[in-house]
Amino acid sequence: MPKTLAELRAEKAAKLPTRSVRLCLNLELVEKVQRLSSEKADLIINATATAGQGDEDREAKARVRKSAERAEPEMPPRVAEIDAELTALWDQMRDYEGDLQLNGVDGAAWQAYKDDHPPREGNISDTRNGNGVVNTTDLMADLGDWAVSWNDEKLTEGDWSGWLSKRIAPADMTDLVRRVVEMQEFKVTVPPKALSGSPSTLSAESADA
After folding, report:
1. What secondary structure letter does DSSP report for 157?
2. Nearest-CA neighbor of 91 among 34, 24, 152?
3. Within a domain: residue 69?
4. What does the pLDDT look like over 130-176, one tens digit per residue?
């Protein structure tokens, strides 16, 4: 049963929306992981393509089996080396990983921000990352207004602009912009009111109609 106005008045004000985003604050390690992961992907693609060409040549010369499962292509030794390097890097990254919490603002404050920073016509980033409602370049510069804590430790004045934002990868900064917009723009889905009457009654009414 819905709460009465008196019951709602007695409750504390509803909390504003929040988002928690997992980040790594060591750009050098992030770059190394990205570079090695890309190298590994290229090696696997090349090895798979080479194995496929070999299979086609052998099938063209002599069809020994009508339907044989193709064996997994042999990977170059470098793939195993990369896996070992990535494991070591991931261990190092744990020292720099944490959860950045973003706190939302009320509807009036968000509307005022959108009014002051409208989306740019034809701008891909504003459409894709800003849901077409805000200037994403301005929002990225102002992300410190939404960032409140790192691993539950409250950020102090100057943390965001002084050093924190400079240690976040560009792609992660773009993701933070999207998270803020989603947090402020997307409505919470309210379940529909329950239909009155039993299924059999509804079926009968539908049949009569």
Report:
1. T
2. 24
3. no
4. 999 999 999 999 999 999 999 999 999 999 999 999 999 999 999 99
Provide the token pair at 45.
């693609």
Helices H / strands E in the chain, number of each: 9, 4
Q: Which two tokens stand for residue 48?
A: 């798979």
If we measure between CA atoms, which residue out of 109, 110, 149, 168 comes closest to residue 20? 149
Q: Residues near 105 by Cβ (< 8 Å), separated by ≥ 6?
A: 16, 113, 145, 146, 184
Tell whether 70 is covered by a domain.
no
Q: Which of 101, 136, 89 is closest to 117 using CA atoms?
A: 136
Residue 202 located in a structural domain: no
Residues whose CB falls within 8 Å of the CB of residue 92, separated by 6 or more in sequence, listed in order:
26, 29
Nearest to 164 by CA among 182, 178, 149: 149
Question: Cβ–Cβ contacts within 10 Å for residue 39, how many?
Answer: 14
C-alpha 54/C-alpha 60 separation (Å) is: 10
Which residues form the domain of 145?
17-60+75-185
**What's the structural domain count of the chain?**
1
Got the DSSP string for 158-205? THIIIIIGGGS-HHHHHHHHHHHHHHHHPPPPPPPPPPPS-HHHHHHH
Q: Is residue 5 part of a domain?
A: no
Residues 108-133: pLDDT tens digits?
Answer: 999 999 999 999 999 999 999 999 99
Residue 114 CB neighbour total at 10 angstroms: 18
